[in-house]
Each structure stands twice: as C-alpha cells, then as structure tokens.
Design goal:
Layout (H helix, E strand, L loop, with lengths): L5 E12 L5 E9 L5 E7 L10 E3 L1 H16 L1
Antiparallel strand pairs: 1-2, 2-3, 3-4
C-alpha cells in the first residue's frame, strides 16, 4: 500500500482537544503533492497519526461558511 504523504501549508485553528491529546484541527494541507485543500480531521499529539477527515476546495469551504453563518444565526 502506498504511503500517504501530506504537508501542512497553514494551521488555521484547533477546534477541540480530546482527553487522549488528539486535536481536531482545520488546516490547509497538500496531500500527496496535490493542490492544498482545507482539511478538518483529528491528529495525535505528535502528528504521527491522523483520523478520518474531510477535505474541501476553496469553493466548497466558502459554501460551508455561508451555510454555517445562516444556520448559526437561528
């Protein structure tokens, strides 16, 4: 199985920290040398492991932001 490589281009925010030390973050990440995408997932304290997450293009992130702004006004 091919090893997955990633480069964190920019750390944007820590959304939460669990008792185990894992942090749920939003970052701008380039996966396997591809264009960077916005990425939300959990990482172990030393970043040697990461959980399942979601990646978003800039257009998708903008739509998500608009939807959350609308939702959170309620």
């Amino acid at each position: 199985m091919k090893e997955i490589q990633y480069e964190i281009i920019r750390e944007i925010a820590v959304l939460s920290t669990g008792d185990s030390g894992y942090t749920k973050k939003i970052n701008l990440i380039a996966w396997n040398g591809n264009e960077p995408k916005y990425d939300i997932r959990s990482f172990s304290p030393a970043r040697e492991k990461c959980g399942k997450g979601i990646t978003l293009t800039k257009a998708e992130a903008e739509k998500l932001l608009a939807a959350l702004k609308k939702e959170l006004k309620q």
